[in-house]
Write a structure and sequence with these properties.
By secondary structure, this protein is an alpha+beta fold. It has helices at about 15-25, 25-35, 50, 75-85, 145-155, 165-190, 195-215; strands spanning about 10-15, 35-45, 60-70, 90-95, 100-110, 115-125, 130.
Length: about 220
């Protein structure tokens, strides 16, 4: 993921019961934790004490958790439960049989004055061998909010437009995801369609979505 300064290291096992106490997950979600998660380790804390960066816009700290998996993947409901329990942005290092994947959601304080956090879409890197995973230095930043923005941008597979703010980039990337889902559904529908007139109409709709997709990607 990144090269974290030594002073940010925590290296403390986080019991699943601590997550349960904070997030109050359903039995079905607790069963997912048991089936999928071997161990959660709080690896790093990025904060004013560890990085000498000031809080900004509600970002007081940034956490890195390392999760050792029992299976080849982890359910989003597990990550969402952890994020609901932790009142800070969290980056995840997922480990399974010498392979790693990194994940994070766009997470921000609610604007209603409460202590709640809004959790958006999750972004994941491809699975790679642990010993070949790139580890660039932490981005340069003037405060923790800027650091968080810069870190999360590396997870988003859509290049930012010049001067594009993170919320706008996240919204545009989400629009691309939605269009891709619609295209997949329409292409499946086209393959199953027998009537010529319906095929023409579906093709027209597909072309329109491709045009919109190109616009969002530019």
């Amino acid at each position: 993921m990144f090269q974290f300064p030594e002073q940010t290291a925590v290296n403390r096992v986080l019991p699943k019961t601590k997550i349960y106490d904070k997030a109050r997950p359903t039995k079905a979600v607790r069963d997912l934790f048991v089936a999928e998660v071997e161990q959660i380790v709080w690896k790093h804390k990025l904060s004013p004490d560890t990085l000498r960066l000031s809080p900004a816009d509600g970002i007081q700290e940034i956490q890195l958790f390392e999760i050792t998996l029992k299976r080849q993947d982890i359910s989003l409901r597990v990550l969402e439960t952890i994020d609901r329990a932790i009142p800070y942005p969290v980056f995840y290092r997922l480990c399974r049989e010498n392979r790693v994947q990194h994940a994070a959601a766009y997470k921000r304080p609610a604007q209603d004055g409460s202590a709640k956090w809004v959790i958006g879409e999750y972004y994941r890197t491809p699975w790679v061998q642990a010993d070949t995973a790139p580890r660039p230095p932490l981005p340069l930043a003037l405060d923790l909010k800027i650091l968080y923005d810069q870190m999360l941008r590396t997870f988003i597979g859509v290049p930012a437009r010049e001067g594009e703010q993170l919320p706008d980039l996240v919204e545009r990337e989400y629009g691309i995801r939605q269009l891709q889902r619609q295209l997949k559904q329409l292409e499946s529908k086209l393959r199953a369609e027998k009537q010529f007139n319906r095929k023409v109409a579906i093709n027209t709709e597909i072309r329109g979505l491709h045009v919109e997709l190109i616009r969002l990607r530019e």
